[in-house]
Amino acid sequence: MITLRSILFNTAFYVNLIVRMIVLTPIYFLLPRKKAYVIPKNWAISNNWLMEKIVGATFEVEGLENIPEGGYIFAPKHQSFWDTFALLPWLDDPVYILKRELMWIPLFGWYIAKQRMIPVNRGARGKVMLEVLKRARKEMEAGRQLIIYPEGTRRPPGAEPEYKYGIARMYRDLGVPVVPVAMHPGLFWPRRKFLRFPGQFKVRVLPAIPPGLDPDEFYKTLVEVTEKASDELLVETVAANPDLPLPPTAVKRLAELHSAA
């Protein structure tokens, strides 16, 4: 049954994307930039609905009161393709720093260019990174929310944290709050896997880390608060979904937490 549901969901997911692009592209490019964001946000809502109705996977968002006004860095755990889009409806005007190759994809690249996403050559240094920072500062001064995945790439649930120090430099240079986010969508939409699993999980938006801390202190705080919440949610999620198959990283981390307790 899980295999059949996964086939149906993956088919519906890509059909939903293609049909919306074909039908709504003229509207998207005629609308002003920020108003046009309603189209990708509604796409995200429709994907969450498909996950619920076909797969049987649902989620709730806690801590929305912790989201500040204006510009800030949104810093979620990154486990799945799901968390690249699913939280868009809760953000006013988000902007991503993304690899420049995505801008070269026909149509998709045009979509993200319209939203003034910030492309970067991941191997770039020096002046190129200064230009990225300049662009990020300009967008945040306009009240936008910069989405940064502190670990840089998707990590399996329960894996040892590998936070990149780059977010500490961005925090120092941009002078804005950072909102950590803990969640485990990777248990239901695993990275590099075809199967999708039913169940229920939480997205926990944590209190914002205020600007002005020493970068090292900020980095330590970000890792500590995010990983503490992540561990708590891992225990809660597995307890609420006892039949959920777990990756080895989650099994290992749960054993460590039970041993420490």
Automatic annotation (TrEMBL):
Pathway: Lipid metabolism
Entry-linked Pfam families: Acyltransferase
Keywords: Acyltransferase, Membrane, Transferase, Transmembrane, Transmembrane helix
GO biological process assignments: phosphatidic acid biosynthetic process
Domain Phospholipid/glycerol acyltransferase as annotated: residue spans: 72-186
Domain of life: Bacteria
MF terms (GO), sorted A to Z: 1-acylglycerol-3-phosphate O-acyltransferase activity
Listed transmembrane segments: 12-31
Record-given protein name: 1-acyl-sn-glycerol-3-phosphate acyltransferase
Species assigned in the record: Ferirhizobium litorale
